[in-house]
């Protein structure tokens, strides 16, 4: 068996994490059947209820399909998974998966420009002030990791100003996926999070309700991070 005994308290979470890692890593292929609950419980060294709870979570995440009276089978996560899987895909063995990082940044750029436009059209005085305050806090930060933290807070305020629950939930997924990579990404993302002038410009455009300016500044800002990551990916690929 490819599984490891569980040593931590939250057994179902550990089972979920191990199976998820093997599905995303390709060790468990789409269409492959999982062992029975009994065999999984023996392999992991946990109770069958813990395995059953983990399987339910895997089904909710779109990673497996549970059929009554039949074996639980692995699903194609690319077709059935949601953005909550990005956190596992982004970081492998403590290192960023650069192709996934780049795809997240591409999605972030497309979403960010639309969110900025909505924020400029919808922001009330309090929301605009919150965005401006977040820009000030970012400008005062000097540590690259701290700058990323403040940049995420800035975008959270922009999403709040946009007043869109759909974009808010998408932002939450992207933020949760990105946060574990901040230390590894610090040297790369400084090209973006170090541009406090652009954050101020975006905050001003939102406060002025200038939708075109907000969208344009957001695109220019987010392109900096995407370009920096793309350069790193290209360099790594040339070394292969």
TrEMBL record:
Domain HTH gntR-type residue range list: 9-77
Q: Which domain of life is it from?
A: Bacteria
Record's keyword annotation contains Iron: no
Pfam families registered for this protein in UniProt: FCD, GntR
Q: Which SUPFAM superfamilies does the entry link to?
A: GntR ligand-binding domain-like, Winged helix' DNA-binding domain
InterPro entries listed in its UniProt record: GntR_C, TF_FadR/GntR_C, Tscrpt_reg_HTH_GntR, WH-like_DNA-bd_sf, WH_DNA-bd_sf
Give UniProt keywords alphabetically.
DNA-binding, Transcription, Transcription regulation
Name the UniProt record assigns to this protein: GntR family transcriptional regulator
Specify the species: Rhodococcus tibetensis
């Amino acid at each position: 068996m490819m599984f490891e005994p569980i040593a931590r308290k939250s057994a179902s979470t550990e089972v979920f994490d191990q199976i998820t890692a093997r599905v995303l890593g390709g060790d468990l292929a789409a269409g492959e059947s999982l062992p029975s609950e009994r065999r999984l419980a023996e392999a992991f060294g946990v109770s069958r209820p813990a395995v059953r709870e983990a399987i339910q979570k895997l089904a909710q995440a779109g990673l497996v399909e549970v059929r009554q009276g039949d074996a639980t089978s692995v699903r194609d996560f690319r077709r059935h998974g949601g953005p909550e899987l990005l956190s596992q895909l982004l970081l492998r063995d403590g290192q960023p998966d650069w192709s996934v990082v780049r795809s997240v940044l591409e999605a972030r750029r497309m979403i960010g420009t639309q969110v900025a436009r909505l924020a400029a059209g919808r922001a009330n005085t309090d929301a605009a002030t919150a965005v401006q305050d977040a820009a000030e806090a970012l400008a005062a930060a000097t540590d690259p990791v701290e700058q990323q933290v403040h940049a995420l807070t800035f975008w959270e305020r922009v999403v709040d100003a946009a007043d869109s629950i759909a974009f808010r939930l998408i932002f939450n997924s992207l933020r949760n996926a990105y946060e574990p990579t901040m230390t590894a990404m610090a040297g790369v993302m400084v090209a973006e999070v170090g541009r406090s002038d652009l954050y101020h410009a975006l905050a001003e455009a939102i406060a002025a309700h200038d939708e075109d300016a907000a969208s344009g500044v957001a695109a220019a800002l987010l392109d900096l991070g995407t370009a920096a990551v793309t350069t790193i990916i290209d360099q790594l690929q040339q070394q292969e």
